[in-house]
């Protein structure tokens, strides 16, 4: 009796297979489009044209739906494989346009430039900064030092958090020390630029998380038991 060989979809974990069930394209095409969109400075229409050149008729809106469905799975899996970061953080926020209005992407890197965490917020104030710090602490543990710019909101948020802790974290406001995070913003902004702004907050949050995950993988922040796997191979391994 001949043993039936399982297809790539049949070997996926149940939760991931369920999401992919109604996506009627080859799995490798879907994953390739998602990775290219979050890894490179490409628009959805760029990807539509690139797939057409390879013999696949994929509408740009279809690519967008793949990204929105799959990126949360990639981020969740990556969180389980992320390497620990250092204990000296540099935090700053950058701007992202949404329907003609600026929103705020809070980010931090450690002294070596490894991404600590990120969070998109609608406002730039104490509440937004505090939510970011609480998320970062929960996901990454407590640093010895956090460096911020001259923003009063960021300082006020950290002071409020420190007031509730037995051992306060050291907080510095030294602008030149934040050059490392300001430089790191550029990698994210470069990918976002061809997207010409986001249509809604949910989509922006998901797409930015995909960009951040791919950026962290490229910086070597994923625990990988296999030697010399490329960033692309590491990205795909999160789902397959």
Provide structural commentary.
The protein is α/β, with parallel strands linked by helices and 240 residues long. It folds into two domains: 89 residues, no CATH class; 111 residues, Nucleotidyltransferase, domain 5 (2-Layer Sandwich). The protein is built from nine helices and five strands, in the order H-H-H-H-E-E-E-H-E-H-E-H-H-H. It has a five-stranded mixed beta sheet with strand order 3-2-1-4-5, with helices on both faces. It starts with 13 loop residues before the first helix and ends with a helix.
Secondary-structure class: alpha/beta
Main sheet characteristics: 5 strands, mixed
Give the rounded overall mean pLDDT: 91
| Count of distinct strands | 5
- Radius of gyration equals 20 Å
Enumerate the spans where pLDDT stays under 50 for 5 or more consecutive residues. Answer: none
Bin the strand percentage.
15-25%
Query: What number of domains?
Result: 2
CATH class of the largest domain: Alpha Beta
Shape type:
globular
Question: Features of this protein?
Answer:
single chain, 240 residues, alpha/beta, Nucleotidyltransferase, domain 5, 2 domains, 5-stranded mixed β-sheet, 9 helices, 5 strands, globular
